[in-house]
Design brief:
Strands 3-2-1-4-5-7-6 form a seven-stranded mixed sheet, sandwiched between helices. The protein is 35% helix and 21% strand. α6 crosses α9. With 287 residues, the protein is an alpha/beta fold. It has a single domain, classed as 3-Layer(aba) Sandwich (Rossmann fold). It holds the Pfam family Methyltransf_11. This is SAM-dependent methyltransferase.
């Protein structure tokens, strides 16, 4: 009998950890995307009136998130796929689909900037639900579908008939909500924020991505590194979309999502045809 197949290995965990480790020293020079997502998560958390004292922070390329959470009176455990990030925060290095914590250990899991490159995202979400205490909250953000369209187009144009994947598949807002629901979360919510950043060259954008630890971490075979010729053609294609001032707008779709571990005390969404409790009211009652 054949062994059951696990999820497809789209991402290489070692390559992923190495990319984050390499970004560690210079991260502050390229942290704008992480900072933007973290600010968005903290704003959403500010609307939640419950204390949620015990927090698991997933994704800590610097100490800013842990520091901000502790300033709110939280007890924070840090976890990151990269060894240097984890060590700097006195945390644990682990993949999100293999978190080494006991069940019902946390009131809040805050995941910032990593869940878009997890091999078994459905399994990771289920595992996180198990780590939450009843009525605990998962709150996360990552780069979503539709991001980096200019760079993708420029690389495709530069590589011609034999393109190599350089940017991994991304999650759209509808899929995020569906994944949360299938993973057993109550009141799942997902929304997207558009962010535009203007670059003078494609190389500057690539440097930012590498500096954030967002390099190519896929398992797909590489046909060699980008050559100078390919990079030059990509830069030219990127520049063709420039505004009159010479800068090209690149777009990021930032995906925010949340879900609660079920608990009998939670309000229930209204049955179809009933006007007792709506889903909007159920969400409002949690903040």
């Amino acid at each position: 009998m054949d062994e059951p197949q696990g999820p497809p290995l789209i991402f290489d965990p070692k390559r992923r950890a190495l990319a984050r480790d390499r970004a560690f020293d210079g991260f502050a020079d390229h942290d704008f995307l992480y900072r933007h997502m973290l600010d968005g998560l903290l704003e959403r958390l500010d609307d939640v009136q419950r204390p949620l004292r015990q927090v698991l922070l997933i994704g800590c390329p610097d100490e800013s998130a842990a520091r901000a959470l502790r300033a709110l009176g939280k007890e924070v455990t840090c976890c990151d796929p990269g060894a240097r990030n984890a060590a700097a925060n006195r945390g644990v290095q682990a993949e999100e689909d293999a978190l080494p914590f006991a069940g019902e250990s946390f009131d809040l899991i805050l995941a910032c900037g990593t869940l878009d490159s997890v091999n078994d995202l459905p399994g990771a979400l289920i595992l996180m639900r198990r780590l939450l205490r009843p009525d605990g909250l998962l709150l996360g953000a990552c780069v979503g579908a539709g991001s980096l369209a200019r760079l993708k187009s420029a690389l495709l144009a530069a590589e011609g008939d034999r393109p190599t994947p350089h940017i991994h598949p991304q999650i759209d807002v509808r899929s995020a909500g569906d994944l949360l629901a299938r993973a057993g979360y109550a009141m799942p919510v997902a929304d997207v924020e558009a962010l535009t950043v203007r670059y003078s060259t494609a190389l500057a954008l690539m440097r930012d991505l590498r500096g954030m630890g967002y390099g190519n971490v896929m398992t797909a075979p590489r046909r060699g590194a980008l050559t100078r010729e390919v990079i030059a053609r990509a830069c030219a294609a990127f520049a063709e979309a420039a505004d009159p001032d010479g800068k090209t707008a690149e777009h990021f779709s930032l995906l925010y999502f949340s879900g609660w571990k079920p608990d009998p005390s939670q309000p229930k969404a209204a049955r179809r045809g009933s006007a007792t409790v709506s889903l909007a009211q159920a969400l409002k009652s949690k903040i």
